[in-house]
Amino acid sequence: MRIADEIVTLLRQAGAGSALPRVRALHLPPPAPPEGKEGEFAALELESGAVGLCFLLLDDSLTHVGALAQAVRGRPAHELLAWWADPAAASASPARAALGYAAVNALTRQFFDRAGFVPPPARNTLGGLDPRPGEGVGMIGFFPPLVRQLVAAGVRLTVLELRPELAGEFEGYTVTLDPLALADCTQVLSTSTVLLNHSFERVRQACPAAERFVLVGPGAGCVPDPLFAAGVSALAGSWIADPAALVGAITSGAPWGGSVVKSLLAAADYPGFAQLLGRA
Q1: Which CATH number is 21's domain given?
Q2: pLDDT along the chain (280 residues), means of 10
Q3: Is residue 59 a part of any domain in this protein?
Q4: Helix, strand or coil, per DSSP, at residue 236
Q5: In b/e form, how buried is each residue of 89-110, taking b as 16+ CB within 10 angstroms?
Q6: By residue range, what is the domain housing residue 92?
Q7: What separation, in Å, do the N-terminal and C-terminal C-alpha atoms of the chain show?
Q8: Residues 116, 14, 112, CA angle at the centre, nearest 5°?
Q9: Number of structural domains, the chain?
Q10: Is residue 75 part of a domain?
Q11: I want to staple 249 with a disulfide (CB 3.0 to 4.6 A). Which of 33, 50, 181, 254 is the partner?
């Protein structure tokens, strides 16, 4: 079974026997969004108060997502899951796929809240990686601040990117379009966007030597059991501590500030879906 299908199956199990949560609102960046993450994410808010984030810069998502704001309001959140999980639907409308993935994150947060579960805070900005000089480290998605940290640590850094204009050899690191270049990396830091665009299985298989494989970013908020089973060691996400403040920041283009807390959910710290379901 595909990772996306496994995640959706668990979320449907989590919601079985209770009223289906509906979407209260979709919160979007301002029409002239700022550079950086403040202009790259939307927040899908459920009537329960749970909020899920999604990345808007894949394909034409940002251009078309605004037209969907009225369509999703009041709609059962579970109906949006197929917008992301169905490959044909996701390919036909990247904007709908983004909102489907926001529903994944929002429903996961609602499930965690019902179970009284909060992931541990992150201890560093590298998702718990412990890079050593000379070690082969991979990065999926170009994160300039993290590149600087890893280069300073003396690793052999290989960055996998989708944008051809970024490829090349640079001082201390390589940017490539070829997933096979990650084959000898023993630690890998990957953008959680690989879940949104359904490339996770492909890039994980391209990293057979990875002892640690961490998904990082505000979108790393889904139920993690299938990912841990597939070789992910941790999810370094953004735990929403103040939903109202986050919504205000996103809609105004302001920094997220204290509205989120960097979290690091490692497989060893996670009690598992079955135990949380029992609590919920």
Answers
A1: 3.30.390
A2: 94 86 95 75 96 92 90 95 90 93 98 97 89 96 93 96 94 96 97 95 96 96 98 96 96 92 95 96
A3: yes
A4: strand
A5: ebeebbbbbbbbbbbbbbbbbb
A6: 3-118+241-255
A7: 25
A8: 25
A9: 1
A10: yes
A11: 254
